[in-house]
Amino acid sequence: MKLCRREVMESFSSPRCKPPHSLRVNINGSSFSVDRSTLAENCEYFRALFQSGMRECQQEEIQLQCVGVLGFLVLLQVLDGERPVLNSDQIVESIECTAFLQVPVLTKHLISVINSENCLLMYHTAATYGVRELSHSSALFIRDMYADLREDVHALPSQLVEYIESLLPSSYMAVCSHSPSNELLQDGQRTVCYLDEEHREWRVLTHLPGSTSTTMAGVAVLDNRLYIIGGVHDVSKKVVETGFCYDPAANTWSTICGPQQLRYNFTLVVHEDFLYALGGEYNMKALSSVERYRVSNGSWSSVSPLPSPAASVASAVAMNRMFICVWKGKGATDILEYAPGLDQWLVVTTLIRQHSYGLCMVAHKDNLYVMRNGPCDDFLLCVMDCYSLTSGQWTAVSGQYRNSKGSLLTAMVRGDSVFTLSRLVTTEYMVDNHRWQLKREMKGFGRIGSIHTFLMRLPKVSESITGNSLDLGQDRTHRDPVTVPDYQHGAL
Q1: Residue 44 parent element (H or E)
Q2: Which residues of the chain have a pLDDT value below 70?
Q3: How far is it, in rounded angstroms, from Cα 288 to Cα 401?
């Protein structure tokens, strides 16, 4: 939500809105009254100032010369829990603000709104002001869209271009449903594959460990590591209690503990630094419980349950917010958001359609796309609706998509592209103005059963003599040791 300067200033200057222990901050003739504890909690600059013992830490009013009004207004919005979509001027001043005041929550918000329209500005400005995390995240986004942005990228300073080119791009990945293997010999079908976009075909990256199940399992990627949790052994639906983690940099599998509640047919979602296991089933009963896994200490803990039991819910993360799509029946589909700070599930909106069984949900910019069964009895047809988080409005997306050719039961967004997959064809769509336009078609996955898809950054690979297994290089974040650009203010 974009606020004019006068509205924000009046809201913070009003005596009835003025918080206790407030500090008046003056910037270029504009004055803001802000809670001291909020500033100290979120801004390293003010935390250091208030603890310095200097005369300024006791003053009720200070002058800030290093930031602009627009950037400070965005900071206040973010500290107030808002997630504003920013124009170019706001982006530049916000980066300047987070650089000087050291505000991690503002940097995180800037990362969450990187898109194809602002990524170059984000990257250049963040490098100029030395905001490394934002600079790196912008560079990764640009690397994934390098082919579409090549001409504009080469207008950047050479050091910035070299850094982008040193990064590893995201690869579209897939693994089919497989139960644990009891055979001594390796099953050639139990593999994790990646799409070779240059040759438009699928190649094998690694084989699944024999005791791993991807049938009704949770599959997700966190910190470029693949996690496979749960799954069932066979039709008895006995749950695999051990989780598995694949590190592509080292080409190794390791085991982790599974959730406290045994579950299958659940959704595994990555949000910030956690894996969330949502709902699912156990002993033929739907679950509402939710657990999250903290990688740093390898532990699962319970969080607020879903409002009602649900299995295999569609999910997406947009603007650093986690959403799920829950079909309620009778034409209603709820979109829920999990608020970690409150540990609550909040109803964001409800989609009401005659045929509204949500098959899949993906996020692009500040939009959620919900794919569902079509407006007739032909369940091979999918139609889409788009929900704008900014405007709070639903829009019907034109076009229908037949599952038998380009399945929308699974879809992944990378930059402005959406990849969908079926046995017959892998399809890439370009998202443009709320429309999905066909960009290209490649070889299908060619395997039966449910398919899990995801994105990973793979080290440089070379085909082995067999042609379907790969030898991975050493553990590197970048292909070459290029230093992250970090310029002095105003150097570019």
Answers
A1: helix 44-51
A2: 1-20, 54-58, 183-186, 355-358, 374-380, 399-409, 461-492
A3: 32
The CATH number linked to 20 is: 3.30.710.10
| 381 and 439 in a common domain | yes
Q: What are phi and psi of 79, to 5 degrees?
A: -65, -25
Number of domains in the chain: 3
* Sign of the C-alpha dihedral computed for residues 85, 12, 393 and 105 taken in this order: positive
- Give residues with Cβ within 8 angstroms of 278, minimum separation 6: 266, 267, 268, 269, 290, 306, 310, 313, 315, 324
How many C-beta neighbours within 10 Å does residue 31 have?
12
Whether this prediction's pTM lies above 0.85 is answered by yes
What amino acid occupies position 314? A
Tell me if 67 sits within 8 A of 97, measured CB to CB: yes
Token pair 């993906």 is at which residue?
362
Q: What is the pLDDT of residue 353?
A: 81
Contact 189, 178 (CB under 8 A): yes
Q: Is 73 left (phi over 0), alpha (psi -120 to 50) or beta?
A: alpha
Q: Are residues 422 and 468 in the same domain?
A: no
Quote the pLDDT of residue 76.
96
Same domain, 436 and 327: yes
Cα 484 to Cα 166: distance, rounded to the nearest angstrom? 10
Q: How would you class 406 by CB atoms within 10 Å of its CB: exposed for 0-12, middle for 13-18, buried for 19 or more?
A: buried
Tokens of 469: 């297994």
Instruction: Please choose, from the candidates 416, 482, 472, the residue with its C-alpha nearest in 3D space to the C-alpha of residue 206.
Output: 472
DSSP string, 271-313: ETTEEEEE--EETTEE---EEEEETTTTEEEEEPPPSS--SS-
The β-bridge partners of 453 are: 174
Residue 324's DSSP bridge partners are 315, 336
| Cβ pair 266, 279 in contact under 8 A | yes
**The pLDDT of residue 13:** 42
CB-facing half-sphere around the CA of 201: CA atoms within 13 A: 5
- Name the phi and psi angles at 76, rounded to 5: -65, -40
Residue 17 structural domain: 1-102
The amino acid that residue 23 corresponds to is L
If you ran DSSP here, which 8-state letter would residue 8 be given? H
Last residue of a domain, one of 102, 122, 144: 102
Q: Is residue 463 part of a domain?
A: yes
Q: Are residues 444 and 318 in the same domain?
A: yes
Q: Which long-range contacts (CB under 8 A, 24 or more apart) does 394-401 make?
A: 394/349, 394/351, 395/434, 397/369, 397/434, 397/435, 397/436, 398/435, 399/435, 399/436, 400/374, 401/371, 401/436
Q: How far apart are CA 233 and CA 129, in angstroms?
A: 53
Partners of residue 271 on adjacent β-strands: 274
